[in-house]
């Protein structure tokens, strides 16, 4: 099922114009890429908000209808109001369906409730929540599933251990030295004891006090000189 978002060409620019648009339930956006000139456009706030309620919108090829002309795009960047979490600006990237694109895909960690070690008190540490991939737009996955049901205490899954769909490549593993870039994604580990946590906190506090004392002595020396 294709996802469609409608837009209108926007001529005026500037903060004043953007504020005026938002008062009328519109938001500014831009579309660029494929060697075409960037185009400033306007979106309906209710339509884009509804579209973004579908998680797949972030990793799907969208049909952007600009003045009734269709372009294939992906969402490249979003800006939101810091307090209201309302979308305030969208960047769309035009794509060529026959050329590979590079984008980030979320990781979905599944079957935690079936992991025996976690049921017995182990901790699941997620080091990576998304990975950058390269693929044709038609091969773009909405997410990469990571099954952790059989992960034992002390075991981990690295980038090379992910089940990647056919036609999709993790960009970090294309630099030649795979071992150097094959980072851990998720691990099942023994929970830290309270004494260890308190000891680490104490070390951090001591380091901070030493740094503050050193800075204070430096400032005093400057005043004395």
TrEMBL record:
A GO BP entry: translation
MF terms in GO: 5S rRNA binding; structural constituent of ribosome
Q: Which SUPFAM superfamilies match?
A: Ribosomal protein L25-like (SSF50715)
Gene3D superfamilies reported in the protein's UniProt record: Ribosomal protein L25, beta domain (2.170.120.20), Ribosomal Protein L25, Chain P (2.40.240.10)
Please tell me whether the keyword Transcription is annotated for this protein: no
Please report the stretch or stretches of sequence annotated as the Large ribosomal subunit protein bL25 L25 domain.
Answer: 5-92
> Per the record, which residues fall in region Disordered?
197-225
Which key words are in the record?
Answer: Ribonucleoprotein, Ribosomal protein, RNA-binding, rRNA-binding
One Pfam family recorded for the sequence: Ribosomal_L25p
Q: Which residues form the Large ribosomal subunit protein bL25 beta domain?
A: 101-192
Q: Does the keyword rRNA-binding apply?
A: yes
- List where Acidic residues composition bias occurs: 197-216
Highest taxon of the lineage: Bacteria
Q: Which CDD domains match?
A: Ribosomal_L25_TL5_CTC
User: Record's Gene Ontology CC terms?
Assistant: cytosolic large ribosomal subunit
Q: Which family does it belong to?
A: Belongs to the bacterial ribosomal protein bL25 family. CTC subfamily.
- What functional role does this protein have? This is one of the proteins that binds to the 5S RNA in the ribosome where it forms part of the central protuberance.
Q: Which PANTHER family match?
A: RIBOSOMAL PROTEIN L25/GLN-TRNA SYNTHETASE, ANTI-CODON-BINDING DOMAIN-CONTAINING PROTEIN, RIBOSOMAL PROTEIN L25_GLN-TRNA SYNTHETASE, ANTI-CODON-BINDING DOMAIN-CONTAINING PROTEIN
What HAMAP family does this protein's entry cite?
A: Ribosomal_bL25 (MF_01336), Ribosomal_bL25_CTC (MF_01334)
Summarize subunit and interaction data from the UniProt record for this chain: Part of the 50S ribosomal subunit; part of the 5S rRNA/L5/L18/L25 subcomplex. Contacts the 5S rRNA. Binds to the 5S rRNA independently of L5 and L18.
Q: Return the protein name.
A: Large ribosomal subunit protein bL25
């Amino acid at each position: 099922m294709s996802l469609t978002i409608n837009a209108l060409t926007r001529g005026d620019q500037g903060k004043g114009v953007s504020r005026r648009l938002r008062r009328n339930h519109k938001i500014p956006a831009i579309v660029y890429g494929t060697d075409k000139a960037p185009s400033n456009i306007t979106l309906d706030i209710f339509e884009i908000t509804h579209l973004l309620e579908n998680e797949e919108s972030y990793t799907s090829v969208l049909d952007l209808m600009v003045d009734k002309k269709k372009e294939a795009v992906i969402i490249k960047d979003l800006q939101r109001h810091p307090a209201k979490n309302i979308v305030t600006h969208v960047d769309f990237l035009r794509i060529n369906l026959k050329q590979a694109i590079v984008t980030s895909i979320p990781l979905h960690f599944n079957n935690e409730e079936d992991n025996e070690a976690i049921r017995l008190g182990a901790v699941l540490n997620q080091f990576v929540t998304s990975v950058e991939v390269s693929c044709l737009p038609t091969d773009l996955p909405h997410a990469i599933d990571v099954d952790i049901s059989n992960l034992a205490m002390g075991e981990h899954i690295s980038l090379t251990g992910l089940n990647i769909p056919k036609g999709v490549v993790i960009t970090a593993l294309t630099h030649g030295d795979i071992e150097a870039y094959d980072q851990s994604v998720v691990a099942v580990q023994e929970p830290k004891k309270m004494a260890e946590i308190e000891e680490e906190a104490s070390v951090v506090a001591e380091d901070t006090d030493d740094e503050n004392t050193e800075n204070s002595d430096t400032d005093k020396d400057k005043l004395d000189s």
